[in-house]
Amino acid sequence: MAKGDHIVVERPHGWVAAGMLHHGIDLGDNTVVHFTGATSQTAKVIRTNIRTFAKNGSIKVVDYEEIRNSFSYMYKRYKFRKLLDEYCSMENRDPDEVVRFSLENLGRTGGGYHPASNNCEHFATLMRKGMPFSLQVENAVDNIDSSLHPIGNFVSQIVMELLRFKTNPYQHQPKDGVNYLGSIYEHNGLYYHECYEKPFFIPPRWFVSVSSEQWEEIDQKSVPYPLREINTLFE
């Protein structure tokens, strides 16, 4: 993985939405910008530690050419083939440009989360290519149009996407009322603390300090780039 990559993680066993894919943009400094939230109403673009993004799942880089080659066009509708070819053929944005656009979008709600028209994959593809696209959604719609799969398959995918906002039932419980995750970073002599009140509870709170002892809370858009991670207090 590298700066500006479109990355994806599959939720592991033990999650309500096990097997669900979550997308984001790798900033190349152990942080990721992605569109997520506690509920569909409060979802927004946030920046988190890459381990928080993964939530114990396996991360991989999205390979657009591999995506195009992996689909059999025999039964796929023309509109789907044309859209997929158009998207995969688009030039990737320069990594620095991807990072810049991603950071500029921090805090954006995009008009509210919607599993079929405004999800995490739409955001990541928009940042990487300049065009919002969700392969999961388009492929599900194509399955319906071609009558290869029952409509229930599409409905189940939408339900699973909504369940992405559920918490992990197997996560650890709080210890002594303290914060769980405390990733500490450094940038130009200042320390930055990405703070979670409980495991993977998003969005995180961000703090800045000169001495790493007295912290002042700041908005996530004020957190500089790139960061150098120096300590993580939660595993």
From TrEMBL:
One of its GO terms (biological process) is N-acylphosphatidylethanolamine metabolic process. Keywords: Hydrolase, Lipid metabolism, Transferase. Pfam families: LRAT. One of its GO terms (cellular component) is cytoplasm. The keyword Ribosomal protein does not apply. Gene3D superfamilies: endopeptidase domain like (from Nostoc punctiforme). One of its GO terms (molecular function) is N-acyltransferase activity. PANTHER family: HRAS-LIKE SUPPRESSOR - RELATED, PHOSPHOLIPASE A AND ACYLTRANSFERASE 3. This is NC domain protein. The lineage of its organism: Bacteria, Bacillati, Bacillota, Clostridia, Eubacteriales.
